[in-house]
Design a protein that fits this description.
Blueprint (H helix, E strand, L loop, with lengths): L7 H8 L16 H4 L18 H16 L3 H13 L4 H10 L2 H7 L6 H9 L3 E3 L2 E2 L12 E4 L1 H4 L2 H5 L12 E2 L5 E4 L14 H9 L4
Antiparallel strand pairs: 1-2, 1-3, 3-5, 4-5
Helix pairs in contact: 3-10, 4-5, 5-10, 6-7
């Protein structure tokens, strides 16, 4: 499946929010978005933003969610299909599944400085779950599982010099107190889910096509 390889700053500008997709640089005043957050082109500096329809607002939130977790459209659509079929609040279920993706757990647990870096490390076989190698970034972790850097990779130059370069607050449902290890204590709680995304708008957007 093809993956977006262009400028991550452009993605933030498209949605008008800093999505912090560039690791440590995203938190720096030198970040391109911090210096020039407006969209490119003659309309980027418009004093009066154009009116946006309700559908447009739903589409924008959907794009924010997709860019935040680095997903292709088909991946996000399939995830919402699963969420609609699961009993409970569709939005909370969808966000919970996204938070429990292996690449996101590695990033939130402090073993990568960006989601993109976490995804690359996973696909290159750096991690194991309960002793078994897992190289699928979309793997959804379960309560009690232990994610760890594989011993054969731990002597790699990357891990010898690795350090956290981004502001980090490990969510309460993860335990990263052991070196190069993350334990899943429980499912994400409501306060652990992203608070800057209007998930109900995304549920409404997908209810037209996948519900």
């Amino acid at each position: 499946m093809a993956r977006y390889l262009g400028s991550r700053t452009k993605l933030s500008k498209r949605v008008g929010r800093n999505l912090f997709l560039k690791g440590a640089r995203s938190f720096s005043a030198k970040d391109d978005f911090s210096k020039k957050p407006q969209k490119p082109g003659v309309h980027g500096n418009a004093k009066r933003p154009p009116k946006v329809s309700e559908y447009g607002k739903q589409l924008l939130e959907k794009q924010v969610l997709r860019y935040t977790y680095g997903l292709m459209e088909k991946q996000l659509s399939n995830l919402f299909k699963k969420a609609f079929k699961t009993k409970g609040d569709t939005g909370i279920i969808a966000l919970g599944l996204l938070e429990r993706r292996l690449d996101n757990v590695i990033y939130k647990g402090g073993l990568a400085n960006s989601l993109a870096q976490a995804r690359q490390l996973v696909t290159h076989g750096h991690f194991q779950i309960d002793g078994q190698k897992v190289d699928i970034p979309s793997y959804v972790v379960k309560t009690g599982e232990v994610v760890a850097v594989r011993e054969s990779k731990s002597k790699n130059a990357f891990w010898e010099t690795y350090k956290i370069e981004v502001p980090l607050t490990v969510p309460s449902w993860l335990d990263s107190s052991s070196k190069m290890t993350i334990k899943v204590l429980n499912l994400p709680l409501m306060e652990d889910l992203p608070q800057n995304i209007e998930i109900n708008k995304i549920v409404e957007f997908y209810s037209r096509s996948v519900a």
